[in-house]
């Protein structure tokens, strides 16, 4: 049994973290039995340490260890792995009879895509980040989240969110980012990025979309906008991968 | 017979344009007979118009048609194609029995890589661009080039080139860019980006490397630096693709 560590979402939202969604999609795609442990945002470091999970990297200061979700514990092998990319690589190796996330030959191009993808949708973050504590978190977690990001950006998190004309301009940049992504994906001859084969990068894109839909709400103006762009490609991706989106508790 | 339009390089350099190198590699890889017509930099628009070749896009003003090398004329089909990416797509389609540059399923990931690659090596351009007219061009072409780029950047081109401590810092950024690229490529299990299969993106990377080696000179401090980074990966790429680097006149 694999244990997946996720960040608690305030009801009715179970789980909003795009990074954890990558691992959830991946575990379901490989049909690997797993259960989820939900941890409140301010408790991640303590809970992961207690479970014997190492940090996934350093905080922005370059020194302090950073404990993050997703992390997994695999009882079958004793492995403990943090970071959605490393988890995906681990699962391909540890379970060679399950469908490959990185078919041989595609590793380098997927790595490049993985690095580039967040840059293309970077205009989203000033709109999305201030929304996260309001929509996904309870009061204690929200306070912790707001304090952390306000310190990191040197301004109150809420001030990051563009309003009025600035928001219109920011949203146009978001649309342009999706347009660039669509330019690449439209080169594919199949429903997935690599044609008829599902690969890790499909789950990378789908996880962001899934979290955006949760965060804005399916009937929000924002999600209806996104749904209307690029011939319905974005909601289509979620539909194509829906069978791998179940939450195992 | 395919005619390839290239930009004249001042002797002993025949050809320095990284964009044209992509097409040269591709034609040699597909073993498609071709000849090269060299055009002086200020004459590109006139010569291409005269040959019936359309612009490849717009100049930075978004309005003026932009005539560029590489462009090809394919006598066998009557096709006239500009832009190295479009030429590669055209050749895959027009000559289906030659080795594919875009194996089915890889199109979208290659498109994403193609867009990302110049960003990763962006720190090179302030060092490289002012060097181009000095090393590769005769006096008339150099004057035209310097005027064009000085207008575009709103400062004398020579002033773009970092010197002293600034150059040391800029070169460290170049090294970091190569390091990021190496991080992706090291995921590949073969000599090429997609393992044992050559694809278009290999020629994209090799063309930049080939031009850098020409521009700096094989025995320059800069090329020796690059050659020493990332376990010799960069000179190794040129060596692996050397059989496709002949210049057909």
Automatic annotation (TrEMBL), chains A, B:
It comes from the Eukaryota. One of its GO terms (cellular component) is cytoplasm. Pfam families: GST_C_7, GST_N_2. Residues 7-99 form the GST N-terminal domain. PROSITE patterns: GST_NTER. Transmembrane segments: none annotated. This is GST N-terminal domain-containing protein. It comes from Macrolepiota fuliginosa MF-IS2.
